[in-house]
């Protein structure tokens, strides 16, 4: 059987593309890469960009390097997970089935639903985490480790275009190969001035390592947070932060995404996510109406893909679901994308991608 790529080549190729201004440190299988002029303080941007303009800036930065935007995946997945949990699922035919085929490749801004965000001891989402976010990924088949390194160099150019300069970026991780079912890989994580932004993963089919790919991913919301350093709740929920609990706002935000894509509440499958989320919404909320919230969140999600259901109907569906009462239901298969979890099995805790 053909052997997989040699992860020990990663430092060499990263050093080659990044140049002499980067310091590469190795300790066994551990790797850390930092800019030589990292001592300067980061000065956050004074004004946030509108979400659509921010996405367009990233898209243009990728396009300037020949990486085109791909159409988003359908939110209802119905395979190993009920809903899309990561843009890397665009590579499933290549990585899981060993076929010379992908669902999408290129720059993929993908709305995802994921219930694995880190929480405090009271079960509240920590700053930097949401149950739904826009997974910004550069996903594509590659022919070797050198293209993995080139993908990271391209990402540094994208970050620079949005005001996150290379001298504040650190890349680190473990070069040991992990395996989960058909997929093997190596994961390195990148931070900007102390905030985790995401990771870059070298992936291949364990039975046919010729099926090789790169997945470099971050979160749009997290990038905006790193750029401005605004308080996280204010960045995500704007004026609503002062009037409602942030976990309740998060639940309405994610429910709006799911319902807006035409996925009805259900006791199992993709629609079960809505019923799980409504347990975070106080029972007395529905009589006072959710229209302002649903309208604002619907407007946000429509930046990334057309919504099949308008915000008035989304509001009606959610309020009707709230009127049913809070009933414990089976969890949807959202956390079960094992390749996504496995590639994050690094010794250091991850705070990436939403």
Overview of the structural elements:
By secondary structure, this protein is of the alpha+beta class. It has two domains: 7-229, BirA Bifunctional Protein, domain 2 (2-Layer Sandwich), CATH 3.30.930; 232-323, no CATH class. 31% of the residues lie in helices and 21% in strands. The chain contains eleven helices and eight strands. A hairpin with a 2-residue loop joins strand 7 and strand 8 (208-219). The chain starts with 9 loop residues before the first helix and ends in a 12-residue tail after the last helix. The model is unreliable at 326-332 and 334-352 (pLDDT under 50).
Task: Write the SSE topology.
Elements: H1 10-18, E1 22-27, E2 30-35, H2 51-63, H3 92-95, E3 106-113, E4 132-141, H4 145-161, E5 169-180, E6 183-192, E7 195-205, E8 208-219, H5 220-228, H6 232-237, H7 246-260, H8 272-277, H9 291-301, H10 311-323, H11 338-342
Antiparallel strand pairs: 1-2, 2-5, 3-4, 4-8, 5-6, 6-7, 7-8
Summarize this entry quickly.
With 354 residues, the protein is an alpha+beta fold. Helix content is 31%, strand content 21%.
Which runs of at least 5 residues are low in confidence (pLDDT < 50)? 326-332, 334-352
Largest sheet: 8 strands, antiparallel
The ordered H/E elements are HEEHHEEHEEEEHHHHHHH
Distance between the termini: 38 Å
Radius of gyration: 20 Å
Strand ordering within the main sheet: 1-2-5-6-7-8-4-3
The strand count comes to 8
Strand content: 15-25%
Features:
single chain; 354 residues; alpha+beta; BirA Bifunctional Protein, domain 2; 2 domains; eight-stranded antiparallel sheet; 8 strands; 31% helix; disordered C terminus
């Amino acid at each position: 059987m053909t052997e997989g790529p040699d992860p020990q080549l990663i430092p060499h190729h990263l050093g080659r593309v990044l140049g002499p201004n980067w310091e590469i440190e190795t300790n066994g299988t551990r790797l850390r890469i930092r800019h030589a002029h990292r001592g300067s303080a980061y000065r956050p941007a004074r004004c946030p960009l509108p979400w659509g303009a921010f996405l367009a800036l990233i898209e243009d930065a990728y396009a300037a390097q020949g990486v085109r935007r791909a159409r988003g995946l359908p939110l209802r997945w119905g395979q190993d997970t009920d809903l899309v949990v990561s843009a890397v699922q665009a590579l499933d035919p290549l990585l899981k089935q060993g076929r010379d085929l992908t669902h999408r490749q290129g720059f993929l801004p993908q709305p995802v639903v994921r219930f694995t965000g880190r929480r405090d001891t009271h079960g509240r989402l920590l700053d930097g985490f949401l149950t739904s976010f826009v997974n910004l990924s550069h996903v594509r088949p590659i022919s070797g480790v050198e293209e993995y390194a080139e993908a990271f160099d391209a990402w540094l150019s994208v970050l620079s275009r949005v005001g996150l300069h290379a001298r504040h970026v650190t890349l680190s991780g473990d070069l040991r190969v992990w395996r989960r079912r058909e997929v093997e890989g190596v994961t390195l994580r990148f931070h900007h001035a102390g905030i985790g932004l995401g990771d870059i993963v070298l992936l291949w089919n364990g039975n046919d390592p010729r099926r090789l790919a790169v997945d470099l991913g971050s979160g749009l919301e997290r990038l905006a947070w790193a750029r401005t350093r605004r308080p996280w709740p204010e960045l995500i929920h704007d004026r609503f932060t002062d009037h409602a609990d942030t976990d309740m706002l998060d639940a309405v935000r994610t429910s709006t995404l799911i319902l807006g894509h035409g996925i009805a509440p259900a006791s199992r499958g993709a629609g079960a996510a809505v019923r799980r989320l409504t347990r975070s919404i106080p029972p007395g909320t529905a009589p006072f109406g959710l229209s302002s919230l649903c309208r604002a969140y619907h407007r946000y999600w429509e930046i990334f893909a057309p919504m099949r259901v308008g915000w008035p109907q989304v509001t009606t569906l959610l309020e009707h679901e709230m009127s049913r009462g809070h009933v414990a239901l089976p969890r949807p298969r959202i956390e079960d994308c094992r390749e996504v979890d496995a590639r994050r099995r690094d010794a250091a805790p991850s705070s990436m991608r939403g």
